[in-house]
Every structure is written in C-alpha cells, then in structure tokens.
Amino acid sequence: MSKRNTVIDLFCGCGGLSQGFIDAGYKISLGIDKWKDAIETFNFNHKDSKGIVADLLELNPVTVSENEKIDEVDVIIGGPPCQGFSIAGKRIIEDERNQLYKTFVNFVEHFKPKAFLMENVPNIMSMGKGAIRNQIIKDFENLGYKVSHQILLASDYGVPQNRKRAFFVGLKNGSEFKFPIPTTTNNKVTSEEAISDLTEHTVNDGTPYMHKYKSSFQKQMRNGNKFIFNHQITEHKEKTIEIIAMVPDGGNYKNLPKELHETRKVNIAWTRLNSQKPSFTIDTGHRHHFHYEFNRVPTVRESARIQSFPDDFIFQCSKTSQYKQVGNAVPPVLAKVLAETIKNYL
C-alpha cells in the first residue's frame, strides 16, 4: 500500500476542499479555521483528520509543526479571504488585511510541500489590473514553485452549479501544472437532477429516503447512504409564499406584477432555480433564491447537493450557520478533480 499524500487545509471552513482531497485518496492531517461552527462540522465528518479553531493571523507554522507533530506535508490547500487586498501601484502593500494571504505563503515557506492549491474569488485575477495575481505568482516563485492559475466553472466538472472560482496551483519539482479539461461542458448536471428526489416538506434527521434516486448524480451523492439529514424546510410568511408562487421555474422578479418588483431591493430577488440548468452560485444564506418547484428556499441538504456534498456529510450547529457553511465551501466534486490531477505530479 503506497503512503497517502498528507495535506494541511488552511481556512478550511467546514471541509469541502478537504472532502474532495479525501475522496481522491489523500490524508488530511490538519484543518485550521477560526470559525468554531465550521470546525465542528469539519471534525464531525473528517474523523481521520484534526480540525482546530485558530486565527491564522496569530498562528506560527513553526508552532503548528511542534504542537501537532507534523514534519512532512505533501500539499497545502486553502482559500485565504482576499476581499481586503490593498494595493499600491503594481504590488500588494503591507496592510493587515493582506496578512491572511501572507499567512498562507508563510505556511508554504515553512513546510515546503511538493504542491499547493490556493482557491479564491474570480476577480482576484483582475484586481488592480492583474497586480494581485502577479504578486501572488511572484511570492510563490520566490519560494521555488512553478505557478499555474485559472478560473474554473464548477458546472464544467460535474457540479450542478455555475460557480466560478480562481485557483492557483504551484509545484515544487519545476513541472508546469495543467488544469483538468472540463468533463461536463455539454451535459451539465441540472438542478432537477441534483435535488428532485428530496421532498417538499421537512424530514427529521436520520429518516430513510422517501424516494428512489432519479439521476446518476443523486445516486452518486447518496453514495450507498440510506438516511437523510439537514432537510428542514424554512417556514415562509403567507405573503412570501403567494409571491413565490407567481414566479415560474427559472423565473425572477421580472415575472411578477410591476407593483411587486420593489418588494426586495436586490436584483437577484425572487429568483427560482431553473430545473433544466445548473443552479446559480449558492450564496451564504441571503435567501432570495427559491426551489424551482416548491414555494420555499432550498433546504440545507438541497443546497449541499447543489454544492456536490455527499449526503453522509452532515452539517452541525444552527440552520443559519449550516447555510453559511455550505455557501462558503469549495464544491467537493470539483476539489476531487483537482486533487486527482495534482496527484499525477507528486
């Protein structure tokens, strides 16, 4: 049996990126995030890994090495929040809002993994006319990595969601990483194929499935599992239900009478999933998106399916927290494709 590649997941959230790497045969030694709820879910689902609650700004990789007895790491993964990037001219300036990203760089510098994968918002590529992207590449090149970067669309890789994310992959051995070729460009998984086997009403955790799976994606998500979790519906006000009922499958506020257009002040308001297309990006619980058929927002489980979490991945803490955990995650199915591709270079 060959030794499994070991991974540290920084800013790991509930563990979507980790899930993909585990599914690809890696061992996650450690996940770190400062959000306690996310780590609770991480530890509940990743029994062979250790998730710790810590602010990465205050964490020194040397201390982590000593405390967690980690000497060797093959891959470092994670998505440092970069919404605060401050730039001057063509470079990232030393501003505390940039330090989370710098922490990721420091961990790579200390552990010298064979590869790293850093995930981020798509506009990181164009911020400051490309200054941020170029600085990121330079920072890692200075540590001896050859860096590739690309924006990927999750629905091109079997995820039922049009979610775009930027990825940077660096390799220590001088090889140039080639991003995986899209696999489902012409046969994308639709919202209906993702969630049509889940019921309209609340199901208590641990209840057996009510329906047989109706698509290969549903079978894949069930993964031999027999029970359903995190499928508690949101009870909307009568007025809200009346308005949702007026919006057709795939429609939005434009399908409503004029006087109702202003009832919510966001342009994504009253949007229904389109049953025949992948979902739009699942957000962290803004609650303006509705099921393509039922007059309610998707449940946590439906949202998790759209993010490609397997059904035996069970979210912990309050429902509001669960929605946020799901929305913040990297889709595991996309993470697995990347993890398998990286494995070819290790």
TrEMBL record:
Pfam families: DNA_methylase
InterPro entries, sorted: C5-Methyltransferase, C5_DNA_meth_AS, C5_MeTfrase, C5_meth_CS, SAM-dependent_MTases_sf
Entry EC number(s): 2.1.1.37
PROSITE patterns, sorted: C5_MTASE_1 (PS00094), C5_MTASE_2 (PS00095), SAM_MT_C5 (PS51679)
Principal EC category: transferase
Transmembrane intervals: none
Catalytic-site annotation from UniProt: C82
UniProt GO MF annotations: DNA (cytosine-5-)-methyltransferase activity; DNA binding
GO biological process: DNA restriction-modification system; methylation; negative regulation of gene expression via chromosomal CpG island methylation
Reactions performed catalytically: a 2'-deoxycytidine in DNA + S-adenosyl-L-methionine = a 5-methyl-2'-deoxycytidine in DNA + S-adenosyl-L-homocysteine + H(+)
Keywords: Methyltransferase, Restriction system, S-adenosyl-L-methionine, Transferase
Family: Belongs to the class I-like SAM-binding methyltransferase superfamily. C5-methyltransferase family.
Name this polypeptide is given: Cytosine-specific methyltransferase
Species of origin: Saonia flava
